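Ticket #4471: structure export looks truncated?
Reporter: QA, pipeline team
Priority: medium

Steps to reproduce: submit the single chain below to the structure queue and open the exported record.
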Amino acid sequence: MLRSKPRHAFARRFEGQPTKDDIVITTGSEIGGLLVDGLGDGVLVEAPQLPTTELNFLRTMSFGLLQVRDFVSHLQLILNDVRKANAKLTQKHHLHIFLRRPAWVSE
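Actual output as written to the record:
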């Protein structure tokens, strides 16, 4: 999907001794929504106090957020295609197929 808007990466730095749960919940709630809304393309999560053995955890979690963003974008495209097909069917055959937009999908 091509976009003309400038893209952004979001960064989150954790100080102290955060747990993995703290990192996942905080990053998901602060950055995940922005990614799903299409406002960014990248994630940088820093937790300097985490042991270097946990770097793979940070990488996996960041990629997971990006995959969710891509999945939601794909669902939105499918929904738009279904709406277009529904409009064509309604015009041609006077069929009335009603599809409700989920609350989380914006116009």
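Status: closed, not a bug. The export was complete when the record was re-opened. Leaving a note from the reviewer for reference: The helical segments are 20-36, 55-93.
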